[in-house]
Amino acid sequence: MVEKTKYYSDFEAKKLICEIGKRVYNKNFVAANDGNISVKVGPNTIWTTPTGVSKGFMTPDMMVKMDLSGKILAGKLKPSSEVKMHLRVYKENPEVNAVVHAHPPVATSYAIAGISLEKPISPEAVVLLGRVPVAKYATPGTEEVPDSIAPYCKDHNAVLLANHGALTWGRDIIEAYYRMESLEHYALMSMYSTNIINKANELSCSQVSDLIEIRTKMGIHSGGVPPCEEQPNQTDTSKEQLIEEVVRKVTAEILKKLK
């Protein structure tokens, strides 16, 4: 039996959007009026944030209700032009019930550099995010933006927007927001380990496989599998060392006879 999707009420959705907006703003994931958030309240209906308003100072009466075709159903203000991204995610992946767009500094820096976040350096990142690709650059507010993210909506949990920011989604607004938090944390760890400490020990394929199994048990079937390399076990290493030692000794004997 397929479990019926439970949607937020209008009251809950608007209140939660304001709460997540404050969190996004207080964590410096956005500046000024940046970012946008949306939540489904039905199979074809969402509440979303208005344009021109700081995410840290929103009130429920500012929210805008829309259907998935982009038609405004309720609200005194206009929605952000970037709501097109949200609508595309919902269209491409019906299991998504909330979307968060922000400009977290470190993750956005990776987006500016055109570097995807996919190295398996953290168990939490593998489980909660998986691979985070970079969508090609598109002018904000245009149809190019939803077109650029469309290939990633079904099989990923987040995407970096080239020279722009980041987009995360989830089965509810908390999951969508947590993925934004996890994305910035992952980007920060990646920056420190690869560019400041200059050393990052990546998880092996078997370790990644174990984490993917955990992820599946948690009901998360998207994210992809980060690229990995199987690390040789101790026995293999010992054999290689023995072979190298034999080759070295044989070579030394041959050179001695040639003198």
TrEMBL record:
UniProt keyword annotations, A-Z: Lyase, Metal-binding
Entry GO terms, CC = cytosol
A single GO BP: pentose catabolic process
Query: What SMART domains does the annotation carry?
Result: Aldolase_II
Show the GO MF annotations. aldehyde-lyase activity; metal ion binding
Chain ranges of the Class II aldolase/adducin N-terminal domain: 15-191
Q: Which domain of life is it from?
A: Bacteria
Matching Pfam families: Aldolase_II (PF00596)
Listed name of the protein: Class II aldolase/adducin family protein
Q: Which organism's genome codes for this protein?
A: Anaerobacillus alkaliphilus
